Amino acid sequence: MILAGKRLLITGVITKDSIAFHAAEQAQREGASVLLTSFGRVRRMTERAARRLPEPVDVLELDVNSEANLAALPRELDGRWGGLDGVLHAIAFAPEDAIGGRFMSAPAASAAQAFQTSAFSLKAIAAALAPLMPRGAGIVGLDFDARVAWPIYDWMGVAKAALESVARYLARDLGPAGIRVNLVSAGPLGTVAARGIPGFEHLAELWPRQAPLGWDIEDPSAVASVVSFLLSDYARAITGEIIHVDGGFHAVGAPTDP
Question: Is the entire prediction scored with pTM above 0.85?
């Protein structure tokens, strides 16, 4: 029960197939109290998923691009819990014209939207919630390896590179308060969001062929376990880190022919 007594906010749950859903499920099994966030038309889907957790939980309103929501969220959490021990940032979005092979034609507005929602939002959430977080608290974000240019990922890949930089600066600025900031760079998983990326299947098929440990795109449990670890006291001296949970794919380079 490595998260016993922890109060965690989990963003990014859409369905029971979401990585964030499995992270919330694992966190509950490790003893944490959990709340989810969602907004707009997706919120009903999140609420249905919330009822399928081992312990059904409430869903709070959060559009990370809404200043009003970001101001209201800490008041809601303070009223419920009086503090917060951890946050999972599992939020990413790029307009259709910024991914799927459209890197050169994407307009600036679409690239900016991808950056704001997928990278700047980590800072926005951290700034809003840090005053509620005691020493030893943790912020974890979901990443996809941004060291190289992937097929079809385009401006989302640029946004993930920005996310990695944002996490390092947050680790620098929040470290003196005892708040840790880390990322989990996951291999491709067959979530609703991922399957919405044009050409996702071509990217995903690289992993089972190349990852030394193999990779199952239908199994987010390994990622969820590392999220729980990073939110626990076992990771109390880790910050500014990117942990790859990808079967070792990142260590062996580009796929090669048999």
Answer: yes
